[in-house]
């Protein structure tokens, strides 16, 4: 195989990585990214063989492996050529194998889950932390400094500790560590993620809401007042430990609003939008639980700035995301559907004129477990460790 053909295959598969001898510069997602091949770092097709799966170059620890986002990380890493899971933790399910907790993962060769207190962190390079908020900060503050960490919980997302304590109803015990954390909404903060040791992965609702709104606010195309957000989530958003209210008999054939006026994602959404506006933005936000397993839709009602048209909003979103692999502005008039992103790391969005002059309706959809959690977490760790950010994320949506 010629070098060019090999490079092309590797790049398309996301297998090219940094190495010793520079051979080319490749334009990747709007950035100039250097890729190298040669010397000790030459990749051969061997890197894709299953016999190598236990010898991947980055050793991953997965905390909270027995939950939904943990299981999703395992699914995604099954196709990752460089990240291999060597440590897994659970709480009630410590001592069990992943295959016994999640039979759909029985084919994966994985370590037995241990309790966090028995975990040997010296033998891993990076961790995904898929634990409940509160518990997370207690555990992360005790982790060794050599680890790169992507935290899927809410513990390090809010810069204002007092705001965290107010909205989460508990004290924060790792405020120093919070100062170090980078908020990892990848497409917006990619440059900061590159150099981060601790990334606070965004919440699922805030991801679906900030991706369309941040570029529009930065470009001053929408008013800061009267932003109304109506979001809907699949039940897996509540985690596997969810209680009676999430039983099939209580979710099927119905929909309910919750956290009305006081959902804990409000300060996270407002923090991101206010940063974009460089002034305080308040939003009206109501989440709903839908009788579906995965998926999230945010329908957002905004007032356009004086003289701005729907075409302006559309062109701004096109310009912001045309080089992005995982955020897609649909053709004009096409309505995003959760079905069309299920199981993938995509966010699909579109913008529509309201009947009321001067107003617009924005719709965005994600899979809450992928772009809303584990997929974005993997996208971030790829960047933190210098791998192409799509590595392990090339799943097409599952339809029907
Ligand atoms: N589900 C989603 O769509 C999203 C979730 N998130 C966030 O990601 C994190 C994980 O969510 P998810 O996977 O859904 O949650 P789950 O409830 O499904 O899983 C929680 C995991 O944490 C473990 N755990 C619970 N309590 C403790 C403890 N005291 N000490 C150590 N481990 C513990 C559980 O172990 P065991 O099962 O053995 O008890 C389990 O492995 C949460 O912070 C959540 O808010 C973020 C975005 C979206
Ligand atoms: C359906 C459902 O219950 N969703 C969760 C949000 C999803 C999530 O896990 O958000 P964090 O990452 O901020 O914890 C909720 O409303 O609390």
Tell me what the structure shows.
GO terms for molecular function: N-acetyl-gamma-glutamyl-phosphate reductase activity; NAD binding; NADP+ binding. The protein is of the alpha/beta class and 400 residues long. It folds into three domains: 3-45, no CATH class; 47-202 and 373-384, NAD(P)-binding Rossmann-like Domain (Rossmann fold, 3-Layer(aba) Sandwich), CATH 3.40.50; 205-368, Dihydrodipicolinate Reductase, domain 2, CATH 3.30.360.10. It has helices at residues 3-13, 68-77, 98-101, 135-140, 161-168, 175-180, 186-194, 204-218, 248-251, 266-277, 310-321, 370-384; strands at residues 22-28, 31-36, 58-63, 83-89, 113-114, 126-129, 148-151, 182-183, 198-200, 227-233, 256-257, 283-289, 296-303, 327-329, 347-353, 359-366. The strands form three sheets. The protein has a seven-stranded parallel β-sheet. Helix 7 packs parallel to helix 12 and helix 8 (204-218) runs parallel beside helix 10 (266-277). The longest helix is centred in the middle third of the chain and has 15 residues, at 204-218. The radius of gyration is 21 Å and the shape is globular. Bound molecules: NADPH dihydro-nicotinamide-adenine-dinucleotide phosphate (NDP) and N-acetyl-L-glutamyl 5-phosphate (X2W).
């Amino acid at each position: 195989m010629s070098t060019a053909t090999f490079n092309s295959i590797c790049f398309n598969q996301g297998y090219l990585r940094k190495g010793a001898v520079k051979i080319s510069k490749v334009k990747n997602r709007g950035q100039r990214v250097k890729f190298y091949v040669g010397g000790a770092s030459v990749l051969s097709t061997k890197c894709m063989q299953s016999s190598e799966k236990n010898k991947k170059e980055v050793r991953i620890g997965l905390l909270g492996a027995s939950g939904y986002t943990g299981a999703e990380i395992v699914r995604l890493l099954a196709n990752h050529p460089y990240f291999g899971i060597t440590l897994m933790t659970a709480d009630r399910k410590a001592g069990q194998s992943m295959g016994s907790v999640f039979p759909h993962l029985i084919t994966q060769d994985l370590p037995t889950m241990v309790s966090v207190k028995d975990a040997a962190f010296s033998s891993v390079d990076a961790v995904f932390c898929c634990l409940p908020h509160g518990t997370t900060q207690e555990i992360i503050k005790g982790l060794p400094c050599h680890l790169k960490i992507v935290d899927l919980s809410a513990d390090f997302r809010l810069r204002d500790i007092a705001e965290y304590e107010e909205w989460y109803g508990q004290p924060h015990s790792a405020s120093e560590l919070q100062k170090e954390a980078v908020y990892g909404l990848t497409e917006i903060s990619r440059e900061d993620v590159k150099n981060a040791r601790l990334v606070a992965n965004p919440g699922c609702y805030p991801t679906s809401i900030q991706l369309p709104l941040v570029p529009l606010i930065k470009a001053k195309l929408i008013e800061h007042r009267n932003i109304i957000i109506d979001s809907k989530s699949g039940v897996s958003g509540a985690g596997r430990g969810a209680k009676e209210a999430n039983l099939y008999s209580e979710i099927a054939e119905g929909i309910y609003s919750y956290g009305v006026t006081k959902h804990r994602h409000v300060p996270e959404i407002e923090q991101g939008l206010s940063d974009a506006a460089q002034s305080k933005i308040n939003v009206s936000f109501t989440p709903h639980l839908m009788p579906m397993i995965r998926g999230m839709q945010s329908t957002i009602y905004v007032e356009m700035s004086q003289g701005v048209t729907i075409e302006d909003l559309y062109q701004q979103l096109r310009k912001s995301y045309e080089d992005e692999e995982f955020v897609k502005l649909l053709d004009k008039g096409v309505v995003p559907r959760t079905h069309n992103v299920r199981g993938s790391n995509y966010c699909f969005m579109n913008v529509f004129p309201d009947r009321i002059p001067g107003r617009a309706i924005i719709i965005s959809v994600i899979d809450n477990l992928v772009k809303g959690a584990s997929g974005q977490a993997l996208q971030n760790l790829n960047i933190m460790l210098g791998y192409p950010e799509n590595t392990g994320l090339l799943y097409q949506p599952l339809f029907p």
